[in-house]
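Subject: Mercuric reductase structure
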Amino acid sequence: MKKYDLLIIGCGASGFAAAIKASELTEGKIKIGMVCKGLLGGTCVNVGCVPSKYLIEIANKYFLSRKKFIGLELSAKINFTDIMSGLKKVIKELREEKYEKVLNYYSNVDLIKGDAAFIEPNRIRVNTEKGEQELSGSKIIIGVGSRPAIPPIQGLQNVGYITSDTVWDLKELPHSLLVIGGGAIGLEIGQALARLGSEVTVVEVMDRILPSPYFEPEISYALTDYLEDEGLNIYTKSTVTMVSKEGDTKVVEINTKRGKQRVEVDEILVATGRRPNTGNLGLEKAGIATDQKGYILVDKFLQTSNPIVYAAGDCIAKSLMLETLAAKEGVLAATNAIKGNIETIDYSTTPIVVFTDPQVASVGLTEDELMKREKVCSCRILKLDYVAKARLIGDTRGFVKLVVNPKDGTVVGVHILSPLASEIIMEGVMLVKNKVKLEELVETTHVFPTISESIKLAAQSFIRDPSRMSCCVE
């Protein structure tokens, strides 16, 4: 049996971040074992952030090529097979550069490829191509990630479907697609494929798309209008009840608020959330508690019910699944495992982005959350019609909403629906994190013309009518 100072189960964002941080904290003096079941890099680089944003970027460029500017005419053609080949090439390059080659810098880290399960509180058994191995760790970090959750819909398993893990294996663009789930994943992929030429229908069980409490309802409703303007069919407060097949066609029956609907499509994308990859870890043998869905229960230090075991990333019980959070949690878990429980995470200033077009970005409290906490709220919405840059690029869809606590004047929430929202939300993060007062934001000069100026204009709208403001007025 091989013994390690630190044993990491998982080789995605949280696992790599933990290995790197632990090596840095100890100057490479501790021996680390990293057990990897799948591809290095986990969800994000292989089937998540990287391929989805690549596809979105191409779809957006194709969409813009058909948009008319006075005096400018463009044309573009799509070769879906080549697009997917290019996507696979980028995935491979980034996996090699950001994960495989990175490991070469850490000679204290052993990579063990195989499927791990606990056999004792500090020991695991790994099934590798060469047989079984037993490993032990003085401290252990679990970062096994998650997988798509599949709802129990009659006929779905027999008919077949794709998920956010398998959509990247498509060889041809589906003529028609039904997306089950109106969250970030479903909307991002759905809009991208629609822009490339698919006829897309989205079915969401809640009363709005992006139903997460982190997003303002106004954003959900406005985005619905924009997506429908592009030709997507969106059913909210609706449920897929049965799926069947007629020849090569998949037939989907939907209960909607207007009655039963029958939709015929070439393909079905299931995007109804994710589940942790903890089912076969033997957590009970290590005394590690989970919730009913299998998520590992951790305290504020990311320590499990087994004091030598920490957990991070998508496999822990929390409300946000983000690659950036997984990496941050991996760093925290490694720090606390090595230095003692000294650090915690402030989730309240985590930015959340949905890469639709226009993009959605949020940080901090929503209006509803502030009302529940303080019983009072001061909010303003500034439409992009008032932002010169939006007019220049020909896209005034969206708005910026600022949530301010009137008791002390601090900005506690920033919510954006606009082009480039993902690029400007970090100003919102700094405003919320540093408890910046509204008057300080108003007094801060912003670059003109930019989309980021919309944040200042939203702040100015608390004290003056934006329709009566000239450009760059302070």
